Amino acid sequence: MLRRTACGTLLCALAALAGACSKTTTPTTPTTTITTDTLTGTLNPAGTTVHPFVTITGGPITATLTAVGPDATKTVGFSLGTYNPTLNICTVVFDNPAALQTAVFNATATTTGYYCLRMYDNGSVAAALADGSATSFSYKATITHP
Prior knowledge:
There is one protein chain. By secondary structure, the chain is of the alpha+beta class. It contains two helices and eight strands, in the order H-E-E-E-E-E-E-E-H-E. Strand 4 and strand 5 form a beta hairpin. The chain is elongated, with a radius of gyration of 28 Å.
């Protein structure tokens, strides 16, 4: 009798275990929110401006130079890189030393982190100052990132 009770208990335990294992759950993937930052500034001769930004997760980064003034046919330096907030340093990863208006960088952030957009005078602002056509250039850029 004890043997039948033990076998019955074992069968009930196996049935309960089998029932618990048959249920599967599918993990949900969190959605990534894309942020768009609009950056504006002024470049002086031999000047550089750094715009840091933070990604909250991995994902696509797109940086676009949307305007250069006063003459949209002039080039400027346009870079995308990683940013060290402790040292206030932008380490360039992608660089376009002669970017025209509408220049674009497409990159992928693998994780959350600090990144930067760097604008700089590639000699065009200094040349414009020398020929009297401008004393500085204005710019506008957009960055989309997670």
